[in-house]
Amino acid sequence: MTLDSMPKDVRGRVVDVDASAIHGLRLMEMGLVPGAPVRLVKTAPLGDPIQVCIRDYHLALRRREAQAITVELSADEEEKSNSPAGPNQ
After folding, report:
1. Which pLDDT score, from 0 to 100, does residue 18 have?
2. Which residues of the chain have pLDDT under 70?
């Protein structure tokens, strides 16, 4: 899953950053490196940009930049989304 398709307020971790993308190296310099915790905070009304929380700071990214970042949901978040009652238990 890429960062732009991550559900809101769900915690995850960065798995990979496409350094060949236009802004890939710059994103890595800003802390978006494999293993870093990440959470989608909110999306602008028209869908672009998105606000993410990476480590302890907030960052606004364009959707096309977020598509270069592969993430995985945290194990506890996956369990919540897969439970019969859904994510809001």
Report:
1. 87
2. 76-89
Average pLDDT, the chain: 85
All domains of the chain, ordered by start, with CATH?
A: 3-77 (2.30.30.90)
CA 5, distance to chain mean position in Å, is: 8
Which residues have C-beta within 8 Å of that of residue 19, sequence separation ≥ 6?
Answer: 25, 28
pTM of the model: 0.76
Query: Taking the C-alpha atoms of 56, 36, 66 and 19 in order, what is their torsion angle to the nearest 10 degrees?
Result: 130
| CA-closest candidate to residue 53, choices 45, 61, 64 | 61
Question: What is the C-alpha separation between 87 and 33, in angstroms, rounded?
Answer: 27
